[in-house]
Amino acid sequence: MPPKRRLEPGKEYPIPHENRYIHEMISETIAQLTHDYAPGDTPREFHPKEHALLKAEFIVNPDLAGDLRVGLFAEPRTYLAFVRYSNSSHVPKPDIKKDVRGMVLKLTGVPGEKLLNNGNRTDVQDFLLASNQRFFAREIREFQKTIKAVTGPPLGLLGYLLSSPRHLAVLRRSL
Q: How far apart are CA 53 and CA 109, in angstroms?
C-alpha cells in the first residue's frame, strides 16, 4: 500500500480523467431523469424527500483552536444559513422505513474564490452530510460507477453491489 501523502487545505488533487467521469455522471443522471419523469415534473435526483427547510445562523466560535482556523473558520463570524433535512430514496416512502438520511447546510455571504463559477451564486458554501460514518465512494471513479449502477436497470445495481462487497457493506451500515 503506498504511503499516505499529507493533503494541503484548499488544494484540490484531481485524478486523471476526472472531467470525463463528471460528464458521464451528468449524462447518466439526465438520461434517467428524462426517462422517468415528464418535462417540468422532475424532482431532485438525490435526496428528493424533504423533511424540513430551516433558516439558521452559523456562528464561527471566537474561541476556536488556532489549528482549526482555516477557510471560513479563520475569523469569528456569523453567517445566514439554510438547513435541509432529507431522505435519499429515489421513490419517497414512509419515514419509518430504513433509508439514508441527509442534511445540507448552506451558508450565505461566504467570501473567497470558489471552485465552481457557473453563473449561480458564488457567495455560498455547502456542507453535505449523510447518516453514515463515511461516504460510500473514495473518489470520483467509484462515485461514477455507483451513479451508473443506480441509474441503470435494477439487475445492474444488484450486480454492482454483489461485485463490490465494500459498497454493499457501507450501504447496509447506513440503513
A: 18
Of the candidates 42, 15, 7, 1, the residue with the CA atom closest to the CA atom of residue 139? 15
Its pTM surpasses 0.70:
no
Strands 77-87 and 49-60: antiparallel
Strand order in the sheet with 101-108: 49-60, 77-87, 101-108, 124-130
Is residue 115 helix, strand or coil? coil
122-131 residue pLDDT tens: 788 889 888 7
* Locus of grid cell 474561541: 63
Would you give the distance in Å from CA 56 to the centre of its chain?
20
Sequence-ordered strand ranges (E) for 24-144: 49-60, 77-87, 101-108, 124-130
The per-residue pLDDT for range 79-113, each reduced to its tens digit, is 999 998 887 766 777 778 877 778 889 999 998 77
Q: For residue 141, give Cα distances in angstroms to 8, 25, 45, 94, 100.
A: 22, 10, 19, 32, 21
150: cell is 443506480
d(CA 44, CA 90): 9
How far from chain centre, in Å, is Cα 38?
Answer: 25
Residue 90 and residue 50: Cα distance in Å, rounded?
A: 12
